Amino acid sequence: MEPVPHHDLVIIGTGSGNTIPDERFAGMDVAIIEHGVYGGTCLNVGCIPTKMYVYAADVAETIRHASRLGVDASVDKIRWTDIRDRVFGRIDPISAGGQAYRQGQEGTTVYLGHARFAGERELAVTPTEGPTGNRAPVTVTGDRVVVAAGARPAIPEVIASSGVPFHTSDDVMRLDEVPRRLTIVGGGYIAAEFAHVFSALGSEVTLATRGPALLRDQDEEISARFTELAAQRWNVLLEAAPTAPPEQRADGTIVLHSHQGSIEGDALLVATGRIPNSDRLDAAAGGLALHPDGRIVVDEQQRTTAPGVWALGDVSSEFQLKHVANHEAAVVRHNLLHPDEPRATNNAHVPSAVFTDPQIASIGLREQDCRDRGIPYVCKTQRYGDVAFGWAMEDTTGVVKIVASPDGTLLGAHLMGPEASSLVQPLIQAITFGLDARTMAEKQYWIHPALPEVIENALLGLALDPENW
Ligand SMILES: Cc1cc2nc3c(=O)[nH]c(=O)nc-3n(C[C@H](O)[C@H](O)[C@H](O)COP(=O)(O)OP(=O)(O)OC[C@H]3O[C@@H](n4cnc5c(N)ncnc54)[C@H](O)[C@@H]3O)c2cc1C
Ligand SMILES: NC(=O)c1ccc[n+]([C@@H]2O[C@H](COP(=O)([O-])OP(=O)(O)OC[C@H]3O[C@@H](n4cnc5c(N)ncnc54)[C@H](O)[C@@H]3O)[C@@H](O)[C@H]2O)c1
């Protein structure tokens, strides 16, 4: 019988997991197990390719709306396959290069296969099908194990079992052509971003979501404003969850049956959330406890319930965001290297952005959180159009909403409008480092007439207790 390969460290997953071993791990025997495309979600099918498409979509929309500024222009043609090939012509080599680098690295073994726990810190690896997989199943053990196995699209059973072809974010960016009519099921991040991309690049988009508004995890005012704007551009169906299996007609048309009636499209994109991959890991065999929603239970140091096993990112985090997965990977790296001085993850103030049109960015408490929890608050919504740069942009829909305690403590910020994902950064800094509204507004210069003046005005507009002004 072959001896079981034993490693100092075994990492499952090459998204943020692959970032852990750096030069400080030289001299350690490290194993990395990956069953899919090397580099994980963000690089291959997530943040990076989507934003490359979003940028192209933004350019197309800017051109289409240029005439309100007195610049007459039109989009002559969308070269979808050129966009696609530019995006993946850049990304695919990074994935291949990352894999080749690790495979050639001294002290590192890459197993291309699917890992499942067979016991404590013991993993059975089934080879990935195809030419790149390991040749034979292998069981490996590690002194320490890091589970960074991510999440995958959740597909409603009524669609999954229908036999009708559908896409997810994993494959929709690789289509050969832009669908003439695209039906998107869902109303969250992925639905909002792809609705913008496909509509700007040529599709007629219908969004069918289960809830009463789009982007319901946002502040209620932002969600309501976005839903209204979206309905002006796309066919938005609320409270429209699928009711029966979709059907495909002989001409290829896909008919989605929903609570709001039947929707015809040429392609179907399912964007109804992502589930942690813990269910495919035999976590119990490894001694790892799970939350009811499938996330691996971790403590503040990212330790699981199994000794010597850590978890990070989408497989364990309540935030399915790359900056969170990266932060957690950095904490795990530190704790592997410095077990006597462990660090804790700090997810007290996690910001996020939705790269749709208009962009949305958020940090901290929403107005409904304060109301529901009985937290005293004031808030101010300032329009981009109230400041000079907003006039220059002819912006009519952008807003910055700030939520604060009556004493000026900043509690949350919620933005919708051009560059919201960048504009939010000073508010992230202020909330993270405890800067109060008054100090932030009055004790620094705000460049005139730059767009951040909208933040300054929102801060100044907060109805704080008089002694705090
Ligand atoms: C379309 C889309 C757009 C996104 N855009 C953004 C964005 O703009 N900003 C942002 O912050 N976040 C974004 N995200 C979320 C972000 O991509 C994830 O939060 C992040 O990539 C999670 O990293 P991870 O390391 O936890 O998991 P992953 O990157 O998913 O890595 C997990 C890896 O483990 C492998 N694996 C899983 N199970 C096993 C197993 N049993 N054996 C072997 N290998 C296994 C998988 O193949 C995968 O490669 C987006 C996600 C999607 C889907
Ligand atoms: N810019 C970013 O940071 C970014 C971009 C994309 C994805 N992500 C991450 O990926 C996660 C997954 O994205 P997502 O958009 O799939 O999930 P989501 O949780 O953001 O949204 C899911 C949506 O699907 C709807 N839904 C659920 N079941 C349904 C059903 N049966 N029928 C109709 N609608 C249904 C929900 O009401 C909700 O609107 C996000 O939560 C986010 O953390 C982040």
Q: Please work out how many helical segments DSSP would assign.
A: 13
CATH superfamily of the largest domain: FAD/NAD(P)-binding domain
From the spread of the alpha carbons, the general shape counts as: globular
Gap between N and C termini, in Å? 76 Å
Strand order across the largest sheet: 1-2-3-4-5
Low-confidence stretches: none
Tell me about the biggest sheet? 5 strands, mixed, barrel
Which fold name is given in CATH as the topology of the largest domain? FAD/NAD(P)-binding domain
Total beta strands: 20
Mean pLDDT: 97
User: Helicity, in percent?
Assistant: 25-40%
Percent of sequence in beta strands: 15-25%
- Class of the largest domain, according to the CATH hierarchy? Alpha Beta
Mind telling me which CATH architecture of the largest domain this is? 3-Layer(bba) Sandwich
What Rg, in angstroms, do the CA atoms define? 24 Å
> Can you tell me the number of structural domains?
3
Structural class: alpha/beta
Bound molecules: flavin-adenine dinucleotide, nicotinamide-adenine-dinucleotide
Domain FAD/NAD(P)-binding: 8-329
InterPro entries: FAD/NAD-bd_sf, FAD/NAD-binding_dom, FAD/NAD-linked_Rdtase_dimer_sf, Mycothione_reductase, Pyr_nuc-diS_OxRdtase, Pyr_nucl-diS_OxRdtase_dimer, Pyr_OxRdtase_I_AS
GO molecular function: nucleotide binding; oxidoreductase activity, acting on a sulfur group of donors, NAD(P) as acceptor
Pfam family, one: Pyr_redox_2
